[in-house]
Amino acid sequence: MKRVSLTQYLIEEQRLNNSIPAELRLLIEVLARACKTISHSVGKGALGEVLGAAESENVQGEIQKKLDIISNEILLQANEWGGHLAAMASEEMETIHPIPNRYPMGEYMLLFDPLDGSSNIDVNVSIGTIFSVLKAPEGMATPTEDDFLQPGTKQVAAGYAVYGPQTVLVLTTGNGVHGFTLDREMGSWVMTQRNIQIPVDTAEYAINASNSRHWYAPVKRYITELEAGKTGPREKNFNMRWVASMVADVHRILNRGGIFMYPADQREPDKPGKLRLMYEANPMALLVEQAGGAATDGKQRILDIQPTKLHQRVAVFLGSRNEVERVTRYHAE
Ligand code: AHM
Ligand code: MG
Fold first, then answer.
1. CA 119 to ligand 1: nearest atom
2. CB proximity list for 302: less than 8 A, separation 6 or greater
């Protein structure tokens, strides 16, 4: 079989479909290289002395792991000097990171969760990097947080790398979703999946059920019906999976269908769920929609939400279209 590398795929997209400007291609290549470096660090584990907690908290008040900080640094350093970016923002940084003056400024803005699935870092379970790419607003001189506050529909690229038994990069630039496996011997990304499609129906769901006592009625109803199985109203048995790494859960759903949920609940009514809109929900929502699935916050399409804060949270229901539509309908009823 002829191997198509990430570089070849990107150049062909640029040349044949005209869907990727040269600067965006450079950006994705640099990102992919950074993910390769992160994959290497993650893979060393205890041998690289990278496990365990750092002595700091991030803006959400969560204890940072050493690998959170290492991954953040890798992404910042890799993306600073290429001239393709105007600014970056990260789960691990309170404020945005403008490109230092000594480097040229480009027209794109990059957001990332450098290492998602923090609770899995030290226990050798899949984790990943999530990224979202926006265009800087017309006429922007000095980037500010406000320039990032664009709805997910404005993303020009999004994706993740999952560091599991294999390291896989899943990418969309608005022209389908494609997967690239890291060839560890050659150090290159090889296309292993073209045009990933999520089945519209599924018998698999993902939710942290330990929170069930806090759920709102529509989520309770939906899950109770799934649990009732063949003799319940759905007349079908459902299976549950929860990795506690969104990247790994979404990766499974892209590959064989399913619905992923992190709902808002009654604990903190002002805080809609756990996941962050700009660098977790939006990129995943774009991937899922590009693969024929759906993504809502229970009420509206995630990609249509107008962000008001860089680190804002959002409820998430995404995956196989018929299930996402059903649970969204329950919220409306
Ligand atoms: P993180 O960005 O601090 O790693 O948190 C996000 C993660 C998601 O990957 C995952 O879906 C979720 O948190 C798991 O949460 P919980 O521990 O409540 O099950
Ligand atoms: Mg995260």
1. 4
2. 152, 277, 281, 282, 285, 295, 296, 314, 316, 318
Give the nearest ligand 1 atom to 116 CA: 4
- Distance (angstroms) between ligand 2 centre and the Cα of 231 equals 37
The domains located in the chain, with CATH, are 6-193 (3.30.540.10), 204-332 (3.40.190.80)
Q: Give the tens place of pLDDT for each residue, 15-37.
A: 887 779 999 999 999 999 999 99
pLDDT tens figures, 235-271: 999 999 999 999 999 999 999 999 999 999 999 888 8
Spatial distance between the Cα atoms of 123 and 119, rounded to a whole number of angstroms: 8
118 CB near ligand 1 (under 6 Å)? yes
- Phi first, then psi: what are they for 38, rounded to 5°? -65, -45
Cα 232 to ligand 2 centroid, rounded to whole Å:
35
Q: Using the mean position of ligand 1's atoms as its centre, give its distance from the Cα of residue 112 in Å.
A: 15
Burial of residue 104 (CB within 10 Å: 0-12, 13-18, 19+) is exposed
Q: Pick the residue whose CA is nearest to atom 17 on ligand 1.
A: 244
Confidence (pTM): 0.96
Q: Decide: 121 and 67 in contact? Cβ < 8 Å.
A: yes
**What residues does 215 pair with on adjacent strands?**
265
